[in-house]
Amino acid sequence: MTDSTESPDLTRRGGLTRLKEGTYGGLFAACAAITLLTTAAIFVTLLSDAVVFFRSISIVEFLTGTNWSPNPAGGGQAFGIIPLLIGTLTVTFTAALISIPIGTLTAIYLSEYATPNARSILKPLLEILAGIPTVVYGYFALVYITPALKATLFPEMSTFNALAASIMVGIMTIPMVSSISEDAMSAVPDELRQAGYGLGATKFEVSTGIVVPASISGIASSYILAVSRAIGETMIVVVAMGAQARMPEIQEAAFGIPFINPADVLLESGMTITVAMVQITGGDLTGGTLPYNSMFALGLALFAVTLVMNVISDIIAQRYREEY
Amino acid sequence: MSNTTTDDSLITTEVQADSNDDRAAPAAGTAVAARDLNVFYGDEQAIDDVTMEIPEKRVTALIGPSGCGKSTFLRCINRMNDMIEICRVEGDVEFGGKNVYGPNVDPVALRRKIGMVFQKPNPFPKSIRDNVAYGLKIQGYDGDVDARVEESLKGAALWDEVKDQLDSSGLELSGGQQQRLCIARAIAPDPEVILMDEPTSALDPVAASKIEDLIDDLAEEYTVIIVTHNMQQAARISDRTAVFLTGGELVEYDDTAKIFEDPEEQRVEDYITGKFG
After folding, report:
1. How far apart are CA A223 and CA A181, in angstroms?
2. How many CB atoms lie within 10 A of CB A273?
3. CB contacts, 8 Å: B138 with chain A
4. Which candidate, B49, B63, B60, places its Cα nearest to that of B230?
5. What is the pTM of this model?
6. Which residue ranges make up each domain of chain B?
7. Nearest beta carbon to residue B122 from set A191, A201, A323
8. Distance of alpha carbon B23 from alpha carbon A96, whole angstroms
9. How far apart are the C-alpha atoms of A320 and A316, rounded to whole Å?
């Protein structure tokens, strides 16, 4: 083949090709930029309006205040985030207690135990669960879960309560955990399972000792997504938890450590950060007023909570990562 | 394609060198035996009525063209075929005198006695130590795990290369080192038989030759059954060779020297000399 005298044409190709390549690159970069710019724009808007708010109400007052009444008929306004933060964290934490274990075990079942047939039926079914409008979940919590809890475990419970709402938010986010975790587990190369089985591992040992550690970063991102979704969930909470920014009673335990009786939060009505924002927009809202600006302060706080959650789960995932 | 005379003589000399080996001479007990074994994948027959006895503490090579059933046969021994839904096994495979397809046999317990090394090095994404200790851990080994890890890595001729990095990931090793790590992992629980499914086919020649040397050493303590595509490799390292041809038929099974120097079957000779397959 080397006896050919004609040397190959290696010159750079002409303008049109290069222009086309450049255009494609630019187009793709522009799409990527849209998300980035939107995030940045949201952050800037939040920040600028929140700054206006913090001129009237100090950050300390906002972060430590235990009374939230942005628009009272009479008397003074108060903008303390604590009751809302308690509401949001209660719902998020309780929902995670439901969605993370059930979702993870479902994912293990689907990826490792289910026959291909069972998987092909169950996975779409689970994803339908994610497609139900959240307002339907909310009414379901109000009309079925609360009465059921009242009739069995907690007769004293309020009609609007955090527990039923949290359970429902948890159920709603199960498919997020199970679906994304299952994808991560299925992506683990089969050679690793074979190696485990070849050593005499049981299915359970292979699933928990090999597959789960190898897919932990995917599993962790499913948790992040589910938790973020729970933090931001509004409709279920509005319907089932009521909209009362209630401050639970702070009691003093041994050694003077303050604590809140979980029943006082879970079995009573409450309000989350998102619901507080909805309530403000629901009233006669005038731009530039203090309640209006408080919305952006709340948005910023929500943003911060989500960010902290993401960072924590990222650190945890990093710690247990076993990349294949 | 002129690989008849020269290649043949090469193989012959090496086979002779091997048959001088001290473990080739005395008769050994049987480690694994197949009796009237038939395996089907759906309607397709992968193993056709195979009966053979595999001696203990010897290297037995299974050779043959692609799709001849040699890997299927290997995976019958530790019942790895159980995981393939459409796979059906008829007949007996005996290990230590017991039929592994008998009614009370737990494949998990069986696999703890039979180690396996795969075609592609497949260390777990864990540290070198945890890789080797994995089998010990799941089997509830109550001795000194670190000592056993060291012993196994030495047994796999890997200790000197990794003794200072036992906590780093097994995936940071080279392909040949990874495969020796997999061998260390397989021998750590002290099995009786080691199955190897083309253990060097994904490795470069230098790494492959290290594995071959290692296999020779392993046969001092273990029964090694190895599937290989590489006939020179079978000739170099094995004591007994079984030739499978298309359709899962065991055509000839004899001492390696006999198979490579003077096979009974014309089809085996054709295969070995490259006229077929």
Report:
1. 9
2. 23
3. 199-202, 205, 209
4. B63
5. 0.81
6. 5-113+191-272
7. A191
8. 62
9. 7
With CA atoms as reference, the chain A residue closest to B135 would be A199
Could you report the per-residue pLDDT of B4-47, keeping only the tens digit for each? 444 444 444 444 444 434 454 455 788 999 999 999 998 899 99
- Dihedral (CA of A234, A236, A239, A242) sign: negative
**Residue A23 and residue B8: Cα distance in Å, rounded?**
61
**Pairing mode of beta strands B59-63, B223-227:** parallel
Instruction: Tell me the chain B residues in contact with residue A210 when contact means C-beta distances shorter than 8 Å.
Output: 124
Query: Which residue type does B8 have?
Result: D
Q: How far is B177 from chain A (nearest CA, A)?
A: 16
Looking at the domain A68-320, which fold is it?
Answer: MetI-like fold (1.10.3720)
Contacts 24+ apart (CB under 8 A), A121-126: A123/A179, A123/A182, A126/A174, A126/A175, A126/A178, A126/A179
Q: What is the dihedral of CA B245, B247, B252, B254, to 10 degrees?
A: 90
Does the distance separating the beta carbons of A198 and B138 come in below 8 Å?
A: no
The stretches in chain A having pLDDT less than 70 are 1-5, 72-75, 283-287, 321-324
Q: How would you list the strands of the sheet with B114-117, edge to edge?
A: B114-117, B193-197, B223-227, B59-63, B240-245, B249-255
Contact A186, A114 (CB under 8 A): no
Under CATH, which number does the domain B5-113+191-272 receive? 3.40.50.300
B232-273 residue pLDDT tens = 999 999 999 999 988 889 999 999 999 999 999 888 998 888
B94 Cβ contact list (under 8 Å, min separation 6): B30, B32, B33, B34, B35, B100
Q: What is the dihedral of CA B115, B121, B122, B127, to 10 degrees?
A: 100
B54 strand-pairing partners: B32
Query: Would you say A215 and A187 are in contact if contact means Cβ atoms under 8 Å apart?
Result: yes
A221 SS3 class: helix
- Chain A positions touching B133 (Cβ under 8 A) are none
CA angle centred on B244, ends B239 and B248, rounded to 5°: 140
Separation between Cα atoms, residue B11 and residue B9, nearest integer Å:
5
- Strands (E) in B109-233, as ranges, are 114-117, 193-197, 223-227
List, in sequence order, every residue forming a beta bridge with B193; answer none if it has no partner: B114, B223
Domain ranges of chain A: 68-320
Do A94 and A162 contact (CB within 8 A), yes or no? yes
**pLDDT given for residue A75 in this prediction:** 62
Compute the distance between CA of residue B270 and CA of residue A3 in angstroms, rounded to an integer: 39
Which of B86, B120, B122 to substitute to test the interface with A, most A CBs within 10 Å? B122
- ipTM computed for the complex: 0.84
Chain B CB within 8 Å of residue A252 CB: no
